[in-house]
Amino acid sequence: MSYTVAAENIARALLEESLPRRWAHVQGVAVTARGLSKILGGKAELLAAAAVLHDIGYSPGLRDSGFHPLDGARYLRDVQHADGLLCRLVAHHSCAIIEAERYGLAADLAREFKPAPRHLADALIYCDMTTGPDGQRMTIEQRLADIRARYGPAHPVTSALQRSAPHLTAATSRVSRQMAARTKTLRPVWLTPALV
After folding, report:
1. For the chain, where are the alpha helices, taking DSSP H only?
2. pLDDT tens digits, 128-158
3. The total number of structural domains that make up the chain
């Protein structure tokens, strides 16, 4: 069984029935992740696994700290004995450390899980921040507006988002530029403007 299939089975078992909308979201995030294989090379399967697993901490059966990135990463580490880098991606997805501060959990998160390398963290941010709550594609601006609308102005998620939005936007831009550059370099010679 492949790494990604195993990850999908775990996410399905934890989210499909109890949180169907969250299940739709993570499936959409995974689809986006698979589209980044050209810039990730050998880490593409790891990113696809992180994409489908990044929100498993919302599962009612996994709640421990009440902070889904930490709860999901702990479950992957302690129960599934998952790859350390996969756990780190889930723990720190989408600038989780900023939100963890709002809950008094930043020290726990940082102590238990080192941040993932930037290129992988950026890729997961891109996938999460360009996928809506029902798995649909959307721009990062639409996604940030959706999160603010769903949580409301007084929620800690919205407060953290005010601080993390510039980082999320920058990461999404970096990945978009990498994809555009990669697509440009793969363009056949006979399609280059100088020859057309």
Report:
1. 3-15, 20-34, 37-40, 44-53, 68-78, 84-91, 96-102, 106-112, 118-129, 140-151, 156-185
2. 999 999 999 999 999 999 999 999 999 999 9
3. 1
